[in-house]
Amino acid sequence: MPGWQIFYHELKDKNFEIVSVAQDTGGVKDAGPWIDKANPEYIALIDEQHLVTKLYSMVNVPTAVWINEQGKIVRPNEVAFVDDRFKSYSHMNSGPYLEAIRDWVAKGERSFFILSEDELKKRLTPVSPDRLMADTEFSLAEYLYHAGHGAEAISHFKEAQRLAPDNWNYKRQAWLLSDADRDYGTNFTKEVQKLNGKPYYAPRQMPEPANKPN
Amino acid sequence: MRTLFRCLGLIFLCSVAKESTGQVRRVVIYDDAATELHTPSPFTQSKDLWMTLAEFTRATGFVVKPQGVCRSELCFPLPKQREADFLRQSGKVTRFNLSEFARLVKQPVAHDEKLETWCFGPRQDVQNGYLATLDAPNFTLPDRSGKSHSLSDFRGKKVLLITWASW
After folding, report:
1. Model confidence, pTM
2. CATH code for the structural domain at A2-125+200-211
3. Which residues from B are below 8 Å from A17, CB to CB?
4. B124, B133, B139 ranked by CB distance to A55: nearest
5. Hey, what's the torsion of the CAs at A135, A137, A138, A144, to 10 degrees?
């Protein structure tokens, strides 16, 4: 977050806003201290129900979407790091991504990094019935957890994870709310090892700014 | 003051009633909001979620009308030959089968049997609606101090929407 604050400060007078949304069932208790520490000038929201994960079919954090002045998506979900602290997971440099955002903020729809409608429609695919069911199980689990039924929530978190196996948000959130090894028979480190070289984040499909035509 | 005492008395009575019957209150989560149902269903043999018409409207915003099940401009006609699957009379009270309605409109349902809690997810056409227009799906969420913000508040600006998490 402190990195995004610096970046936002640079661009905030150019009709640009950052809306950050914490995907945290624990709400203010879990996300609040991080927001306090970064004290951002941009908008920092807290999403206990993981609504944004569901609405935008996200599977990981940090994930970003570019939205233009008319409220249209111009780049869908992709991994969005502001620095290279987690490069061992992302295998991507953050620099070119930030450069691309600067280009978009400066040039708008003339930016090299804006996707065509055809390309957007290719990348944004309809959700499957299984995915919708996973979202619904997750919502139920999240409600039960908040209603004081953390133990009963576990089977529904597990069902959400089974139906949406690629969704790391559903896994990591549930593991955090209980003893992952005891209740889920696994944990984050073990699951990452199981990837066995497969990327934890989907590679970003973005041309390097260096290759863009002048 | 007397009214206040009467209200407190009522609340007390209600909570005692709940304790004494030992029955779990049924909960419906619809459009991400939870509603408690206070009237037990007489159709105990049914695995489906039956509720009074008033409870149905309170939980979902939909109203049962002659032309179908409606919410503002949207109406889902009930198949005439299968009306009994949706509406059932018990004494003077008509009840509606929300589980059957969810099947009709292709809406996912998650259920916790022990806690009698039902969660209804979005219809597929609603969830995928933005794919045709590419309009960024709107949401309204609180900030650190509880103040609500909607994505649509920022129309007219470029927005970088970023998710993160503490975990």
Report:
1. 0.90
2. 3.40.30
3. 154, 157-160
4. B139
5. 150
